[in-house]
Amino acid sequence: MEEAVMKPTKKGGGRLCCICNLRRAALKRPKTLEQICRECFYEVFEEEIHQVIVDNQLFKPGERIAIGASGGKDSTVLACVLAELNRRHNYGLDLFLLSVDEGITGYRDDSLETVKRNEVQYGLPLKIVSYKDLYGWTMDEIVKMIGLKNNCTFCGVFRRQALDRGASLLKVDKVATGHNADDIAETVLLNILRGDIARLSRCTSIVTGEDGPIPRCKPFKYTYEKEIVMYAYFKRLDYFSTECIYSPNAYRGFAREFIKDLERIRPRAILDIIKSGEDFRISTSTKMPEQGTCERCGYISSQKWCKACVLLEGLNRGLPKMGIGRSSRGLNNDPKKDKDMKQSNGTKSIENKQCGSLDF
Amino acid sequence: MACDSSTCQSNSGCYKREEEPISSKSSDSSQQSLCVKCKVNEPVSGTSDDGRFCRECFRSNLYGKFKLAVTSNAMITPSDNLLVAFSGGSSSRVVLQFVHEMQQHARKNFDASKDRSLPVFGVGVAFIDESAYHSVPSYEIDKAIEEIRSIISNLDPPAKQLHVVPIENVFSLDSLDGRERLKTLVDSISDATGKEDLLLYLRMLALQKVASENGYNRLVLGLCTSRIACHVITATVKGQGYSLPADIQYVDARWEIPVVLPLRDCLAPELNMLCHLDGLKTLEFSNGPCSGINGLVSSFVKLLQGENPSRECTIVRTAGKLTPFHFNRIPELNDSNVPLATRRRQKRFNLKPSESISSASFCPLCFSPLSKSDLLSLSNIESCQNYDILDAACCSSCRFQIFPKDPSSVEHFLSVLPQPLLARAKNCSNGNYSSRRKQILDCLLSESEDET
Amino acid sequence: MQLTLEFGGGLELLCESVKIHKVNVDPPNGTEKFIMKDLLTWVRTNLIKERPEMFMKGDSVRPGVLVLVNDCDWELSGQLDTTLEDKDVVVFISTLHGG
């Protein structure tokens, strides 16, 4: 299936790969501007990710690792590359695919079919956790009740927790997610635009949540989206690319567009933004919310109840606005929490984050 | 919350405006027949506040922001001699006007006081003539300079000296050669953004030079919130996250003559409005639009600002939370000639030393403090070719967008670089460089001196 | 001149969810060559049924849309100036959808 329709070129260019000097170049790397052929591209693409894994000690031998799998391009390529590197470099990892079923007909059910095929293709055991099982509600049911406003808040809060719960069911040591360099650069900008200095200081970390139940890591932190898509295309990987039916058009905001415009005139800008994010002088005394556990479900929470439980209580009591925005009634009457909620609210167009992906 | 969303203009820790721009606007505008401050006069429209203030209150509010910035950062003391950088745009026109008014006020107090213990600070104006690069016809630049002269001479006394400085003055004294050399230098840079940025660095160099040669001890820039917001994003995009906080504080004393930004809390539309209301004359130069990264960022920020009128403030506020450098304050005065009250006031507003981390090394081109990773790449240089030392002494951004990538053009680049920039490379040798590298640098400097 | 056009990464949604289009195009009047620029104009007029701004920006593709001509990155063949020939395969993939 890697055999692509390769027509002998008649184009005047047909330049040779600057690495092997043998085959015709197939793409221009955004990172280095090198013109390389497909085979050399696979090689450098995979080995760079290997280097990131080694340099940052993302995995230890014998660890159980869940790959957050949405069926989209990033997680599909991540699963493919991690499976390959695990074999090639003897990481000694037990890899799993972990998917969240939000219960969105015509969207998630289709993308889960992709993940199920990936399970077979890469020989990685798949675990699916569903909102219905965890919370008693599918997104379809939630949208029926609350409409199309704030539905992404529910989905985001629930997905984050669902992934942790799935990971603990699988008894994994870490979750690897498909966030790529473009995503991280976008997050750096969004945090500047929103004034969120605490998140700004955290968002470029390659490993997060080490104080939480299950740490997460981003092996694609320095990997360009363009290369991920090229890799998936050349390898004819099976991935799913439809927008979420509940937030069509909202999948990328101004910041994403800006990043793509930047990439066009200066591809290294994406890595420069990440470098800026890593280099920002942020005083470490910036207070982090104290972590406790939710009194209701035991999940980590800085409040009495975790966000998911607050939202769920609202749904179950027929007050779906509970826990949304500034006017949250009852439960956690803490101004600090109100602010947290607002930040995850994302109703302004600038903060429209892509939905339907594993977006934490 | 600490402040009322409708009146709070400061960008220091006020979250409220950001969160509810829509509701606050709609509730305000329904009853908007009178100025929200004096509740007497009709508001002016067209300001960024959507006409909440009448003309007088708008003006005093803007002046208030300027004055707060000046006093709380001890920017101006009675014994100072300020040089106002005047480009002709509305920001620099307003900062000139405000500094002038503050001087008038100080003068009144001086005349009224019995002991006349506090002198009145001095003010001069500098205009950097960039026609050497932006091929502006000479009659146009002559006309502009005449207009600037008349603006300055129409201000009430004390008279302010105007320094018209051709940007090529950064080279040597013979500016005939300088014009050509400047063109050669800028043309040798292939990256469009790099060209623009180098011109900015040269402009600062020219301002520092004229300030230093004429006995000024403060350089006043009219940078406003909108411009600073763009700088925050461009610096981030260029990978200058480490040095960013150095550029956006009220005070930047890394230069020989400390730079102050008293309009840091004012928005561009407000400044335009004031010029319009008060009939302050501004000049437009056809320098062409920004291209490359800078142009892209400014249209991005404009788009965001249109979507949410407090976006620029939020951007500057975020960057303001980054830890500043030790030089982001007026250096302590221990001079016994300085009145005690002044010194005391200064102490109160200075940054706590514990908040700052000292940084000894600066990029010789853009003069931004170097991050650890920049320094690391410097100490890793093992080859001892001439250019490596300057190349490696640069921040990663200048190395990419300004420094020549082709080793064969480096000699040429260094030969047209202004002497002060080369000297900086020498100055930053106290620290992480081995003595051998220092020698290399000395050798490099003497070589380029021979050539000039 | 016959071309095969393929839309992926979500772009197919803009042309009635059809991924592969076999099309016949001719060089604009008075020219011999048919270049990518001509193709984009043609696609926009004839294939894109909704939200054309998701496909194009100005006279090029929207940043974030990858273009391959015969499985080769169009950044290597001159982007908008790439000359197309009979039986060429042009692939458009959006990077903007899903993760």
From TrEMBL, chain A:
Its EC number is 2.7.7.-. Residues 292-322 form the Cytoplasmic tRNA 2-thiolation protein 1 C-terminal domain. One of its GO terms (biological process) is protein urmylation. Residues 343-360 have a biased composition (Polar residues). Keywords: ATP-binding, Cytoplasm, Nucleotide-binding, RNA-binding, Transferase, tRNA processing, tRNA-binding. Residues 65-248 form the tRNA(Ile)-lysidine/2-thiocytidine synthase N-terminal domain. One of its GO terms (molecular function) is nucleotidyltransferase activity. It is found in: Cytoplasm. It is an enzyme of class 2 (transferase). InterPro entries: CTU1-like_ATP-bd, CTU1_C, Ncs6/Tuc1/Ctu1, Rossmann-like_a/b/a_fold, TilS/TtcA_N, tRNA_thiolation_TtcA_Ctu1. Residues 325-360 are annotated as: Disordered. It holds the Pfam family ATP_bind_3. GO terms for cellular component: cytosolic tRNA wobble base thiouridylase complex; mitochondrion. Pathway: tRNA modification; 5-methoxycarbonylmethyl-2-thiouridine-tRNA biosynthesis. ATP binds at residues 68-70, 74, 100, 178, 183. Plays a central role in 2-thiolation of mcm(5)S(2)U at tRNA wobble positions of tRNA(Lys), tRNA(Glu) and tRNA(Gln). Directly binds tRNAs and probably acts by catalyzing adenylation of tRNAs, an intermediate required for 2-thiolation. It is unclear whether it acts as a sulfurtransferase that transfers sulfur from thiocarboxylated URM1 onto the uridine of tRNAs at wobble position. Belongs to the TtcA family. CTU1/NCS6/ATPBD3 subfamily. This is Cytoplasmic tRNA 2-thiolation protein 1.
Automatic annotation (TrEMBL), chain B:
It is found in: Cytoplasm. One of its GO terms (molecular function) is nucleotidyltransferase activity. Pathway: tRNA modification; 5-methoxycarbonylmethyl-2-thiouridine-tRNA biosynthesis. Keywords: Cytoplasm, tRNA processing. Residues 1-13 have a biased composition (Polar residues). Residues 1-28 are annotated as: Disordered. Its main location: cytoplasm. It comes from the Eukaryota. The keyword Magnesium does not apply. One of its GO terms (cellular component) is cytosol. One of its GO terms (biological process) is protein urmylation. The keyword tRNA processing applies. Plays a central role in 2-thiolation of mcm(5)S(2)U at tRNA wobble positions of tRNA(Lys), tRNA(Glu) and tRNA(Gln). May act by forming a heterodimer with NCS6/CTU1 that ligates sulfur from thiocarboxylated URM1 onto the uridine of tRNAs at wobble position. Belongs to the CTU2/NCS2 family. This is Cytoplasmic tRNA 2-thiolation protein 2. It comes from Dipteronia dyeriana.
Automatic annotation (TrEMBL), chain C:
PANTHER family: RURM1 PROTEIN (PTHR14986). The modification 1-thioglycine is found at residue 99. It is found in: Cytoplasm. Belongs to the URM1 family. It holds the Pfam family Urm1. One of its GO terms (cellular component) is cytosol. SUPFAM superfamilies: MoaD/ThiS. It comes from the Eukaryota. Pathway: tRNA modification; 5-methoxycarbonylmethyl-2-thiouridine-tRNA biosynthesis. Acts as a sulfur carrier required for 2-thiolation of mcm(5)S(2)U at tRNA wobble positions of cytosolic tRNA(Lys), tRNA(Glu) and tRNA(Gln). Serves as sulfur donor in tRNA 2-thiolation reaction by being thiocarboxylated (-COSH) at its C-terminus by MOCS3. The sulfur is then transferred to tRNA to form 2-thiolation of mcm(5)S(2)U. Also acts as a ubiquitin-like protein (UBL) that is covalently conjugated via an isopeptide bond to lysine residues of target proteins. Its main location: cytoplasm. GO terms for biological process: protein urmylation; tRNA thio-modification; tRNA wobble uridine modification. Keywords: Cytoplasm, Isopeptide bond, tRNA processing, Ubl conjugation pathway. The lineage of its organism: Eukaryota, Viridiplantae, Streptophyta, Embryophyta, Tracheophyta. There is a cross-link at residue 99 (Glycyl lysine isopeptide (Gly-Lys) (interchain with K-? in acceptor proteins)). This is Ubiquitin-related modifier 1 homolog.
